[in-house]
Structure prediction request, 149 residues.
Amino acid sequence: MLDGLKDIIRKSSIHVCLVNTGGCNGCDIEIVALLSPRYDLEQYGIYVHNNPREADVILVTGAMAEQWIDKLQRVYAKTPEPKIVVAVGNCPLTGDVFNQEGGNVHAPVSDFIPVDAEVSGCPPRPSEILEALLAVAPGAIAARGRQKL
Prediction:
């Protein structure tokens, strides 16, 4: 019964797994703002959780710290096909202020996993993150044979 209900809900919703690979958490705060009544991410059928096995989209924030290289690749491997990855903020794109010579930050994140969309900014506005999600996530839904939003 519960599995059947879960399948019905998942057929018309987008599940996002948030992964912070090291940084200041500025982008994470903007993603949390998407859950507020002002943006109301869930009205679009988008739900944020931390289970990569049920995710349609992986949101990557933060500079790519050395200890996250293997961990992020494992999270990516656990995500079912088709895998959509959105890099949020300057840190996963360039390492930003954390990318110093001789440091342990490895940017961009696209060197380690494929990235489908990039949202630049330090931090990017919640509306820009939402636009990126709405641009790439419905394709994941359609590719899995589910209803498109």
